Amino acid sequence: MYKYKLKIIQLVKDKSKMDLSVYDDVFFDGILKKRIENTQTYSHEKYLTFLKNNPDEIPELINSFFIPYSYFFRSPLIFTYFNEVLLPDIINNKFKNEEKELRIWSAGTAVGEEAYSWAMLTDYFMNKINKYIPHTIVGTDSCSSQINKAKEAIYPENKLYNVPQKFFYEYFYQHGKENKIIPRIREMVTFYTFDLLSPEITKTPWDTNFKFDIINCSNILIYYNKTGREAIITKLLKYLGKGGYLITSRSETEIFIKYPLKQTINSVGIFKKTN
Ligand SMILES: C[S@@+](CC[C@H](N)C(=O)[O-])C[C@H]1O[C@@H](n2cnc3c(N)ncnc32)[C@H](O)[C@@H]1O
User: Fold this and answer.
1) pLDDT band with cut points at 50, 70 and 90 for residue 201
2) For a substitution probing ligand 1, which of 20, 140, 220, 234 has the most ligand atoms within 8 Å of its CB?
3) Res 117: pLDDT
4) Mutation test of ligand 1: which of 19, 63, 66 has the most ligand atoms closer than 8 Å to its C-beta?
5) CB within 8 Å of 85: residues ≥ 6 apart
6) Least enclosed by CB within 10 Å: which of 30, 56, 252, 263?
7) DSSP label at residue 251
């Protein structure tokens, strides 16, 4: 079975440049099992033959690794902390250093819920202090169809359960049976298709020297093995400015402990870059 798994990884790499060897073993096996079921091939060996003979199955398999599950304000604690502590800290430092642009990156944004949550909070904060803060808010994902959906900004009810009521009335409007984000918030976010594992560290949609104040990378590293995680974290840290914040999910905090980051509250995924 292992032999066929390696052959599948090699075939996908040859045909698409996508390296599936960086995924966590259990996650990988689960995805493969589903594709074997869906294609009714019933064994690794037969699935490999199917993959060789059906070029359409390669993108199908690759897409199965992109799990777009997300919702607005997924970690309410982090967003509250952002409002009360992080943003005032970042903004004060910026005014001291005379660099005034706030820069936020939602890395692995799925269909945009996370990036728009940051935009809503930034907008809310600007209203609170009654001051405009120039900002760049970026949402990226390796899956281009998810990025296209993010740009549409239309969401079903079940993605909105954590949205504070005042945000719901201010930032969404009815769109058929779903909810669409108002243009002001949509325009605050720029979306790009971008793979955090693209080999060249400098291959980003922005300038090599660009530094973010906040990078949110949540519920992504769990899908990867050590090699994949290290490659992603190296990329994130390159683009996080000194004193900037790395935000992750509670279950991923341990992964970041050995990096030059200081955890701001125990067991919550908020780290400050120390050098
Ligand atoms: C489970 S969702 C998490 C969405 C959001 N960050 C959250 O916490 O709700 C994982 C997302 O990460 C994206 N992703 C996985 N690997 C990636 C990579 N190497 N580069 C960019 N995006 C990636 C997937 O396509 C998917 O949309």
Assistant:
1) low
2) 220
3) 96
4) 66
5) none
6) 56
7) G
